[in-house]
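Methods — Computational structure assignment.
A single polypeptide chain was analysed. Its primary sequence is given first, followed by the predicted tertiary structure written as structure tokens.
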Amino acid sequence: MLTLTRKTEYGLIAVCHLAQVGEKVVSARDIAKEQAVPLPLLMNVLKRLHRVGYVASVRGAHGGYTLTAAPEQLTLADIIEAVEGPVHLVRCTNPSRTARKCDRTARCFIRRSVAQVHNGLREFLGAVTIADMLTGAQAPAATDTPRVATQ
């Protein structure tokens, strides 16, 4: 089963919350309370989002976090990768040298099909913005349904 982790879920919740409040600085504690998410995990996720530059951290008594990019510019793929790292359905969709080493590559009959699914998923995640999530907009439809070539 392919599911989003709680970290990714809380990252999306936090980013959407910050997008809704605009330029207002909001503490992690306030987000956790309003959204009913555990504060320690939320703080960890916000640190990751800050590290990649999607949220700014404001210090002080009235400190907290703000969103640094417009909700129309941030995508599901951006948030997932910031929190979890790159999305790869299977090892052979990971371009790093160590991950590509698979003893089945030469005889794998699912590799091409899985790669098409992987690419379609990445395209979809990159097309859905935080603004879309806030408005409840329907996700963009795929322009072509990829055909899986038979071997």
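Note: The first helix runs from residue 6 to 21.
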